[in-house]
């Protein structure tokens, strides 16, 4: 089968590798219908050291079950399924609390132990706890497939930011970042009842989609100038909620500068730093709550599928380019150059 392998910064290749096989009785083999490139895939694309053997890539998948292990009970051959970007048993106390990305028995794709999902076939561990069957839909229902794919990561990561911030009706919410996760956070904030949604982004095609998703204001400025713009829009008080969807220190600093006293900063941009201000002059003095983390999309996906199927939300609009699997390297390059917002991949 064909699979995507990254050998170092900027070096993405599509290669023929062995088909995956059932390794544990709880595994399933899933044939890809659609997958995609994630903004987080660009982090190693920028700075991964060169390696001889490379690392398989990808963690978002909508596909059809081809084979199941002897212990699998909830999915069967022929089911159209969504694979959340982390696999989990969905039965342990941590999963029951709704934090499947921290399942002590689970893990992530695109690691030395579990291959990535930008491939024609994938092995999904803990299939009963991880795979979610989409009822009444087949791979031929092409119009709805992109939005269903967003439930494996991008939309529900944006939703996780909004959910963890406990957005309430009437609040002002500021979203930092106009990538696919940031735009998904705008849509989620709108769904949760935010009265004003300020989107901080500089790319008009993206911020136009943000307005379609529910943004009421767009601020292109960054840093101190951007902070002042938000303060001006909020009477000097700042934003009740800040959803940070970038992951770099300037975005965190900007979040601290615009959050209202007693407010919440919710981060879902994968942090590219370990140390950040949390003391009296940053968070403590204003009673700021800092939350967020890897989105446990399995906790949200059952409620989100009907919203996609009945047209309440259409998060698949974040995909603005489609490539075949052979052209994935060009997809990475296009996203890195900001020529594409998010790239959909077909086998």
From TrEMBL:
Protein's name in the database: Threonine dehydrogenase-like Zn-dependent dehydrogenase
GO MF: metal ion binding
Keywords attached to this entry: Metal-binding, Zinc
Highest taxon of the lineage: Bacteria
Ranges where the Alcohol dehydrogenase-like N-terminal domain occurs: 25-126
Cofactor(s) this protein requires: Zn(2+)
Lineage: Bacteria, Bacillati, Actinomycetota, Actinomycetes, Micrococcales
Residue ranges annotated for the Alcohol dehydrogenase-like C-terminal domain, each copy included: 180-305
Source organism: Conyzicola lurida
Any Pfam family matching the protein: ADH_zinc_N
């Amino acid at each position: 089968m064909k699979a995507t392998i990254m050998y170092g910064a900027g070096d993405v290749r599509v290669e023929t590798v062995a088909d995956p096989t059932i390794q544990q009785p709880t595994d399933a083999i899933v044939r890809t219908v659609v997958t995609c490139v994630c903004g987080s895939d660009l982090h190693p694309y920028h700075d991964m050291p060169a390696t001889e053997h490379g690392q398989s890539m990808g963690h978002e998948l909508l596909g059809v079950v081809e084979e199941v292990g002897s212990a699998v009970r909830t999915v069967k051959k022929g089911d159209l399924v969504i694979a959340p970007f982390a696999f989990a048993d969905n039965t342990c106390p941590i999963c029951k609390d709704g934090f499947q990305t921290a399942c002590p028995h689970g893990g992530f794709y695109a690691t030395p132990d579990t291959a990535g999902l930008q491939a024609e076939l994938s092995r999904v561990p803990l299939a009963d706890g991880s795979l979610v069957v989409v009822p009444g839909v087949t791979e031929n229902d092409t119009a709805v497939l992109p939005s269903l794919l967003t439930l494996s990561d991008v939309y529900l990561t944006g939703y996780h930011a909004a959910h963890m911030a406990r957005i309430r009706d009437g609040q002002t919410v500021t979203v930092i970042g106009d990538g696919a996760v940031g735009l998904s956070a705008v849509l989620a904030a709108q769904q949760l009842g935010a009265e004003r949604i300020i989107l901080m982004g500089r790319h008009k095609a993206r911020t136009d989609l943000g307005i379609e998703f529910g943004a009421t204001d767009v601020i292109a400025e960054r840093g101190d100038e951007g902070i002042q713009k938000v303060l001006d829009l909020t009477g000097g008080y700042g934003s009740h909620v800040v959803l940070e969807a970038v992951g770099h220190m300037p975005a965190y600093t900007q979040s601290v500068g615009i959050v209202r006293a007693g407010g919440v900063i919710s981060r879902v941009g994968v942090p590219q730093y370990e140390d950040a201000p949390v003391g009296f002059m940053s968070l403590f003095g204003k009673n700021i709550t800092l939350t967020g983390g890897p989105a446990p999309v399995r906790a949200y996906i059952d409620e989100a599928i009907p919203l996609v199927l009945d047209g309440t939300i259409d998060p698949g609009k974040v995909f603005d380019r489609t490539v075949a699997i052979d052209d994935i390297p060009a997809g990475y390059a296009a996203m890195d150059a900001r020529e594409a917002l998010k790239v959909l991949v077909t086998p």
